[in-house]
Design goal:
The protein is α/β, with parallel strands linked by helices. It is built from seven helices and 14 strands.
C-alpha cells in the first residue's frame, strides 16, 4: 500500500493544484517511481489511497495502466484519515495476502526490500519498521530483545516529550522512522481505533503486547521529498 492521501502542504505551491504523489522528479512522478521500484521486488499488486486532488491520481493511473501494476484505489475523498485511518479504510482491498508493505509516497530510498522481508519472516514480527540512525525531530525508541530491537516508545527530540506505553527499559535505542513498514495481515484485525489516527499511535498502542521490531537500514540513501527543494535533491541523489 502506498500512502498518497496527504495534503502535501510542505510542497506548496505545487500542491495548491496537484497531489503530492504527482510531484515530478526527472520527469517521473513520485507515484510512478515508487510503483515501478516495487516491481523490482516482484510487487505488482498495489493499493493507493487518495484524497487531495484524488481525480488527478486516478486519471494518471488509468492513462498509464497502473504503470504496469495492478493498482486499486482506496477513496478518502470524504475525509483524509491520516496513515493509520487510511490503512484501516483500505482493509477490504488488502485481505488476500499474508504480508503487506506500507510506505509513504513521498519517501525515496534505495533500500533492499528483500533483506527487510527476510528479517520480517525470520523473526515472525507482527510489524517490521524500517529505521535509520540519523538526525530527526521524532524518534521511535527500541529495547533489545533476543538480538532484535523491539518498539517500546517514542520521543520528540526538541520538546523532549516521550510516550512510553510500557515500563521504560533500562536502555532504549532511538532510531528515525523511514516511513516504510511490513505488517502481517493479522495486524489489520488488531486495529480498534476509529476515524483519523496515525500509524505511529497505532504501533504505540500495540507494542507492549505485540512484537513490533526494527529493521535498521542505516547507510541506505533515503529522502523525504517534503519540500520543493527536495525534488531537486532527489533528482541528484537517485538515478531515476
Amino acid at each position: 500500500m502506498i500512502l498518497a492521501a496527504g495534503l502535501g502542504t510542505r510542497l506548496k505551491p505545487f500542491t495548491d493544484h496537484h497531489p503530492k504523489a504527482l510531484a515530478p522528479v526527472n520527469g517521473k512522478s513520485l507515484l510512478e517511481i515508487n510503483i515501478t521500484n516495487l516491481q523490482k521486488f516482484g510487487i505488482r499488486d498495489v493499493v493507493v489511497n487518495v484524497h487531495h486532488f484524488a481525480e488527478q491520481i486516478e486519471q494518471v493511473l488509468t492513462a498509464n495502466k497502473g504503470f504496469g501494476s495492478n493498482v486499486q484505489v482506496s477513496d478518502e475523498r470524504a475525509e483524509v484519515l491520516e496513515t493509520g485511518g487510511g490503512l484501516k479504510k483500505a482493509i477490504p482491498l488488502l485481505r488476500d495476502t499474508e504480508d503487506i508493505l506500507v510506505m509513504n509516497v513521498d519517501i525515496l530510498s534505495d533500500f533492499d526490500l528483500n533483506r527487510m522481508f527476510l528479517q520480517h519472516k525470520r523473526t515472525g514480527a507482527l510489524a517490521t519498521l524500517a529505521v535509520q540512525e540519523r538526525s530527526t525531530s521524532r524518534y521511535f525508541l527500541f529495547k533489545e530483545e533476543e538480538k532484535n530491537l523491539r518498539l517500546c516508545g517514542w520521543r520528540h527530540a526538541t520538546t523532549l516529550e516521550e510516550k512510553l506505553p510500557c515500563s521504560a527499559a533500562a536502555k532504549m535505542t532511538p532510531l528515525a522512522f523511514s516511513g516504510i513498514q511490513i505488517i502481517q495481515s493479522t495486524f489489520l484485525h488488531k486495529i480498534v481505533q476509529e476515524g483519523k489516527f496515525s500509524l505511529v499511535d497505532l504501533y504505540l498502542s500495540l507494542c507492549c503486547n505485540e512484537r513490533i521490531l526494527a529493521w535498521n537500514h542505516t547507510g541506505d540513501s533515503l529522502l523525504d521529498v517534503g519540500k520543493p527543494e527536495s525534488l531537486d535533491k532527489a533528482a541528484q541523489m537517485f538515478n531515476l
